[in-house]
Structure formats: structure tokens, C-alpha cells
Design a protein that fits this description.
It is found in: Cytoplasm. One of its GO terms (molecular function) is magnesium ion binding. This is UDP-N-acetylmuramyl-tripeptide synthetase. Keywords: ATP-binding, Cell cycle, Cell division, Cell shape, Cell wall biogenesis/degradation, Cytoplasm, Ligase, Magnesium, Nucleotide-binding, Peptidoglycan synthesis. The chain is built from 16 helices and 26 strands. The protein has 522 residues and is an alpha/beta fold. The chain folds into 3 domains: 102 residues, MurE/MurF, N-terminal domain (Udp-n-acetylmuramoylalanyl-d-glutamate--2,6- Diaminopimelate Ligase, Chain: A, domain 1), CATH 3.40.1390.10; 224 residues, UDP-N-acetylmuramoyl-L-alanine:D-glutamate ligase (3-Layer(aba) Sandwich), CATH 3.40.1190; 153 residues, Mur ligase, C-terminal domain (Protein-Tyrosine Phosphatase, Chain A). The strands form 5 sheets. Strands 11-10-9-12-8-13-14-15-16-17-18 form an 11-stranded mixed beta sheet, sandwiched between helices. Strands 19-20-24-21-22-23 form a 6-stranded mixed beta sheet, sandwiched between helices. Strands 2-7-6-5-4 form a 5-stranded mixed beta sheet. α5 packs across α10 and α13 packs across α14. 53% of the residues are buried. Bound molecules: ligand UAG and adenosine-5'-triphosphate (ATP). Ligand UAG binds next to α7.
Length: 522
């Protein structure tokens, strides 16, 4: 039985503490040396929460207005007041915009930079009683956070997580929007977790979160690094800059200690440039590291591995997930737990009792098919490296043809598309190119780029272009038979397809299950 089922209840109220705090607004002004520009007296006002968006303001909130790509948040001060905000915190430019809003206007030089500390003060989360784990890297963050959660549950420890897929407080699940919540939401969530007696939290930390102060006001107990490869070059000028954002997690103002995968030059650079004590882990025997993971057995539904560490430490266990990289993610999670003070022997005892890690990770190398028909895997991979890894992981379990369905998302890093097309065409026998969140880009142009790259990489390869994702999957299924594998990469756990600003309901998991049933395979 899987540890976590996808059908858990969704409860947006779980993102806020159930027992709201009440903080004196004047105390906030004094604590952060804020200047009061306009508005009425503040001496009797209290604050019970904080919000970065007028759309999420709850009565009693401090509304924080920051400049964005489209507008200055201060422009929504009236909306925030109507929703119940008691004051606005903003910058000098915002103070001018919010002057007539009827809210007391508190000014600080950079309101986004102040948000984490302010939210921690309001929610009382600065000295968090829970053990805080952070995970960063291009691929594997969500998986490691879920694996931490799973092992903690098997150890009997009530834990929480924030990830691209979900926020979790014990068994309660809430759908996520951002990978790492804004600081206002993160501290509210941690306060809610404290109420629920959560004693360990896994937090997925994107590079964007580090660059945008989203994890300010916290110091992580143990931070993990998976890997770094081409992604997000729409946000960063170079891979070096992207790396620099992630490196910050391994400095003393962010984390107490770290566990770093040293299989890449990027991991080895963290070892040289970090300012905190580090433990190293490698998935390759020849690379020197404190811990080594090696895969000792695999099927299409599980991966068995051995983890060996200092002083003869050794653990052999399995994950109910496909691919060496899931074993690497599990090994990283286990070493992070050991570095937080949990004895390896305790972990071994419960994993042996349960026959391995009891984890379910929505949309990550997730098997959709049953016992007959083609093997169907839905995966959230949308970077060249993720394609490379999942295709390589699936090949040994494919006696027939490996069919890959994928697209590239619009309004995101366009420079990775050539590699995505080329890797798919070289690694799969049949490629079906479809649309995947074109957003405001022309979907036909995105497909044309992928098709050209795929054709150039493998001129003799079988290529199909099917714009509609539902139809694309059905095309793949019509080409498949027993022994074949279909890898549908991109949508993972997501429940919508985003076209020109509209989120059209679409679950690749549900739809591909339906298609398998229509074809008589399920
Ligand atoms: C590019 C970027 O970082 N955008 C973020 C930014 O939005 P923006 O600059 O477009 O904001 P805006 O629309 O100009 O609005 C300015 C301010 O007014 C507020 N506002 C706006 C309209 C309104 O009616 N009321 C209101 O209060 C907004 O909340 C915002 O604070 O500020 C918003 C909140 O303040 C963020 O939610 C939003 O993240 C968007 C959704 C985003 O996609 N971010 C990406 C880059 C991201 O962070 N991705 C990583 C994942 C990386 C991975 O794949 O691993 C992540 O951690 O999620
Ligand atoms: N350790 C790993 N090394 C390389 N590829 C991986 C690893 N773990 C996962 N992947 C691939 O990356 C995809 C995304 O995995 P996951 O969601 O865990 O990563 P992520 O870093 O959280 O990405 P995102 O923030 O976009 O969700 C997986 O579906 C798989 O294809």
C-alpha cells in the first residue's frame, strides 16, 4: 500500500494558523525601524497575518506591496483594505502610490527583502521548534522532499512538506502554486504546522526562491543538493549565475549544515565555496565522498540500493520508484536525516520492517499502466537532463519500442528546447511532440523548434506532431503494444494546461488512465 494517496483532502485554510496571532502594529514599526508616512493612528492596531497579494488578504493582515514585473503591489492597497488589511508595508515608490488608500503606510527601503523577517515576527516562527530540511538542485527536489517525508512517517515522526506538487501537514494535502512559497505564506504554513505538532519539515527551495528572499527568516538545520543542469536561463544570465543562487543555501545565514551530491563539478564547487559544515554523497564508486549509493537491483516498479558511509555504516533498502536517480534521491534523504541526528540504525529498523521506503511521489516517474499492455510512465521531467535520465532508466525495461510524448513550455527558458528535442530523438524510438503550457507563445513555433532539433539529431527517427496533449497520448498508445514503453514527460502531477493565460483543466495522469481503459489495457 502506498504511504500517501493522491485523493487526500484539499484545504486552503490549512495554509494559515488556526489560532491567529495578534501583534501590536506599533511593536512591528519599532522592531523593524519602519517609518509611518500617512494614515491614521496606529497605536491601537493589531496585526494577525501578512499577505503579499491583495487576493489572499485576510482580515487583520499586514499587506505588503512590492514591485513586480507587471505592476507595483502598492497599486492594490485599496483592494487589500477592502479585504481587511490593517496597514500596508511598502517601499518609497509604493508609499506614493498607496498614499490615498486609507491604510497606514509603513515604509522600508526594500519591502520584499524585509518580508521574511516581518512574517517570522508576526507568526512567531523565527525560532522554529521543528527540524527544517531544505532541498535544492535542478532535478530531484520534490522527490527528495517526499522521500524525507515518507521515511519520517515510517519513523513515526509527524512531518510536513512544501513542494512543487503539494504542501503537506501530516496527512493533510493542499495543492501548491509556486515551488517555494513566498515568505509570507511559508511562515504562515510553518505556524500552522507548529499547531499540528509537526516536528520535521522538508522544504523544496528553488533558485528563484533564494534570489527573491522567499526563505528569509529561517535557518535550515540540514540542506541537501541534488544536481545542477541546464534550466531557468530565462531567469539567470548563465548557469554560473543560476549556480550562485543555489550556492547561497550553503552559507551560514541560510543553513547550519549541508549534504551535497558531488557527482558533478557543480556539487564539488559547493564543497569548495560553502561556508557551513558539509557531508558529501556520491552515486559513483570512483568519486571520493563520505557516503556512496549503488543500485543493486531494479525493476519497472522498484529500485534497490546500498548506502555505505563512514565507520562501516551500511544500509540496503528499496524505493517503489523507477530509476537510479530515485535511489540517489532516497539516499540523499537518508543521509540528511542521519545528519539531523537520527541514527542510521533506527532508519534501517523501520525500513526493514516495512520492506523499504513507502513513498508515493505524484507525477514523478509514476507508473500509470497495469499488468498488461505497454508500460506507461508519467513524469514531471522538463529539462534535458531529466529526459536523459528517465529515457536511460526506462530502456532496460522495454523489450519493444520506447515512445516518448513531450512538449516544451512557453514563456520559460527557450534555450533548452534544442537539447530536449535532440535527447528525445536519440533516446526514444518514436517521438510524439505535443503542446505543454504554451502560455503566451505560439505553440506551433515551439513544436517546430522541437521537431527541427529532433530531426537533426536522428534523421531516420519516427516523429509525430500532435498539438493536443490528449490526442498526442492516444497517438502514442495506438502505436504501442505489449513490451513497449510510453514516457509522457512534462505534465507530471499538474491538473491544468495553460494556454494564452487560461488554465484548461487537464490531468495527464487521469487522462492517460482513461485512454488505457478505452484501449482495454486497464
Ligand atoms: C517572475 C516572478 O517571479 N513572478 C513573481 C512575482 O510576480 P510578478 O512580478 O509578475 O507580479 P505582478 O503581477 O507584477 O504584481 C506585483 C505585486 O502585486 C501583487 N498583486 C498583483 C495583482 C493583484 O490584483 N493584486 C496584488 O496584490 C502581486 O502579488 C505582486 O506581489 O511576484 C509574485 C508574488 O509576489 C510571484 O507569485 C510571481 O511568481 C510567479 C508566479 C512565477 O512563476 N515565478 C517563477 C519564476 C518561480 O518562482 N519559479 C520557481 C520554480 C522553479 C522550478 O521550476 O524549480 C518557484 O519557486 O516556484
Ligand atoms: N536526482 C535526479 N537526477 C536527475 N534527474 C532527476 C533526479 N530526480 C528526479 N529527476 C528527474 O527530474 C524530474 C523532476 O523531478 P522532481 O520534481 O523531483 O525535481 P524538482 O527539482 O523538484 O523539479 P521541479 O521543481 O520542477 O518540480 C523527474 O520527474 C525526473 O525525470
Amino acid at each position: 500500500m502506498s504511504l500517501v494517496t493522491p485523493e487526500l483532502p484539499s484545504a486552503p485554510s490549512a495554509l494559515r494558523p488556526q489560532h491567529p496571532v495578534s501583534r501590536d502594529l506599533q511593536g512591528l514599526i519599532d522592531q523593524f525601524a519602519l517609518s509611518l508616512r500617512t494614515g491614521g493612528p496606529t497605536d491601537r492596531l493589531t496585526v494577525s497575518g501578512v499577505s503579499l497579494s491583495s487576493g489572499t488578504v485576510q482580515p487583520g493582515d499586514l499587506y505588503v506591496g512590492v514591485p513586480g514585473r507587471n505592476s507595483h503591489g502598492a497599486a492594490f492597497a485599496v483592494k487589500a483594505r477592502v479585504a481587511g488589511a490593517v496597514a500596508i508595508l511598502t517601499d518609497e515608490a509604493g508609499a506614493l502610490i498607496a498614499a490615498g488608500s486609507g491604510l497606514p503606510v509603513l515604509v522600508t527601503p526594500d519591502a520584499r527583502a524585509a518580508l521574511g523577517a516581518v512574517a517570522a515576527w508576526i507568526y512567531g516562527t523565527a525560532d522554529n521548534p521543528a527540524t527544517l530540511f531544505a532541498v535544492t538542485g535542478t532535478n530531484g527536489k520534490t522527490s527528495v522532499v517526499y522521500l524525507l517525508f515518507a521515511v519520517l512517517k515510517q519513523l513515526g515522526i509527524t512531518s510536513g512538506l512544501t513542494s512543487t506538487a503539494e504542501r503537506r501537514i501530516g496527512d493533510l494535502a493542499v495543492t501548491s502554486s509556486l515551488t517555494t512559497p513566498e515568505a509570507s505564506e511559508l511562515h504562515a504554513l510553518l505556524a500552522r504546522m507548529n499547531e499540528a505538532a509537526v516536528t520535521a519539515v522538508g522544504i523544496e527551495v528553488s533558485a528563484q526562491a533564494l534570489s527573491r528572499y522567499r526563505v528569509d527568516g529561517l535557518i535550515f538545520d540540514v540542506s541537501g543538493f541534488t544536481n545542477l543542469s541546464h534550466d531557468h536561463l530565462d531567469d539567470y544570465a548563465s548557469l554560473d549565475e543560476y549556480f550562485g543562487a543555489k550556492l547561497e543555501l550553503f552559507q551560514p545565514h541560510r543553513s547550519k549544515r549541508g549534504v551535497v551530491t558531488v557527482d558533478s563539478d557543480w556539487g564539488r564547487r559547493i564543497v569548495l565555496e560553502a561556508g557551513i559544515p558539509l557531508t558529501t554523497i556520491s552515486n559513483q564508486a570512483e568519486i571520493p565522498a563520505d557516503w556512496h549509493m549503488s543500485v543493486v537491483g531494479a525493476s519497472a516498479v522498484h529500485t534497490e540500493f546500498v548506502l555505505e558511509g563512514p565507520n562501516g555504516a551500511r544500509l540496503q533498502t528499496r524505493v517503489p520508484l523507477l530509476g537510479w536517480f530515485m535511489a540517489a534521491n532516497a539516499a540523499l534523504a537518508i543521509v540528511m536525516l542521519v545528519d539531523s541526528g537520527i541514527p542510521l540504525s533506527d532508519i534501517e529498523t523501520c525500513l526493514t520492517r516495512d520492506g523499504g521506503i513507502d513513498a508515493y511521489i505524484p507525477g514523478r516517474a509514476e507508473r500509470i499502466s497495469g499488468d498488461t499492455g505497454p508500460l506507461v510512465i508519467i513524469d514531471y521531467g522538463h529539462s534535458p537532463d531529466a529526459f536523459l535520465n528517465t529515457l536511460a532508466a526506462l530502456r532496460p525495461f522495454t523489450t519493444g519500442r520506447l515512445i516518448m510524448v513531450f512538449g516544451a513550455d512557453g514563456d520559460r527558458d527557450t534555450t533548452k528546447r534544442d537539447d530536449m528535442g535532440a535527447i528525445a530523438a536519440r533516446g526514444a524510438d518514436v517521438v510524439v511532440i505535443t503542446d505543454f503550457h504554451p502560455r503566451f507563445e505560439d505553440p506551433a513555433a515551439i513544436r517546430a523548434t522541437l521537431l527541427a532539433a529532433a530531426r537533426a539529431a536522428n534523421p531516420a527517427g519516427e516523429l509525430h506532431e500532435v498539438p493536443n496533449p490528449r490526442a498526442a497520448f492516444r497517438t502514442a498508445l495506438s502505436l504501442a503494444t505489449e513490451g513497449d514503453t510510453i514516457l509522457y514527460a512534462g505534465p507530471g502531477h499538474e491538473e491544468y494546461h495553460e494556454v494564452a493565460g487560461v488554465k484548461i483543466p487537464y490531468s495527464a495522469r487521469d487522462d492517460s488512465r482513461a485512454a488505457l481503459r478505452e484501449a482495454g489495457w486497464l
